[in-house]
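Entry 14. Structure prediction run on the chain below.
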Amino acid sequence: MTQFTRRNTLGLMAGAATLPMLGTPALANTKLVVGALPFTSHAASFVAYERGYFAEAGLDVEFKFFQAAQPMAVAIASGDADYAVTAISGGLISLAEKGATKVIGGALSEEKGIDGQKILASDAAFQAGLTSPAQLAGKKWAVTQAGSSFHYMGSKIAQAEGVEVAFTPLQKVGAIIGAMKSGQVDAWSIVPHIAKPLAGSGAVHIIGDVAVYIPDYQVTTVFTSATNAADERAKTEAFLAAFSKGADDFNAALVDKTAGEDAAEDMVKLIHKYVYTDREYEKAKPGIVNGAMRINAGAALNTTSVQDQLDWFKAEGLVKDSVTMDMLVDTSYVSTM
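Output returned:
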């Protein structure tokens, strides 16, 4: 009997999803601003740009970099960016409720068997006894803003352990890293390409895995303005098709490791143009390699995970109870599960 893993299923669905994209009309150097964070998790966009997939689709892409998810959502709503990839935040949901933004696909995912996001303790907290998530009671958990993915993860972990934590907003990832190193906050969760080098330096300690608490978590999504989703179908399909080709290359090189050692080396060098640019290549390479998580094939979207996130935001009073999945997500572009 054939067994289907989650990865198999996503791959099969993605193949079906990309078929209509093959007929996407050619676009003539359509200018796009793509929002991103300088993280390995955004590699699909970087690969699509560097390998000409955006250009082949008729898209002239410029990147706009952010330090947190919520400002990116505001940029999409205001027209300062056209497409973006980041975690679902309270700001994104509220803008979707107002008819300004739409989630149109999936990107980074937690997947069983693939090293994912880590739960971290500051060295000071670790030395004081915070050696597992079960000991988080009363600890300061770092977030960028209330309603961020860090808030969602911390809350779900605390709920599972039956403890309460003090959420500490620090606005930017860089500020959180500094606060973790200095012991101003006690705990945080973050993608492995950031977590592992920090832990390797002794500044923090890995005390758990997010996937244990939030299995199959749709960590990041692809989103755009509601206007683009509704009225710019050719452009949106072209973006998703090129993005998906970038994701395929990334997964083959660094996640499934089916493309060979040379391809993996080329991929790390490509990503290094955007990630850990302040470090020499040899010092940046381990963090990039060890931080590779699955980017959904075909930008397939785990709507079950998105619904769980939406339910949490509503239960916490961070968004209106009246917000629905139809307001947040346009499911017409990619396969869903």
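Confidence is low (pLDDT under 50) at residues 1-25.
Filed with the rest of this week's runs.
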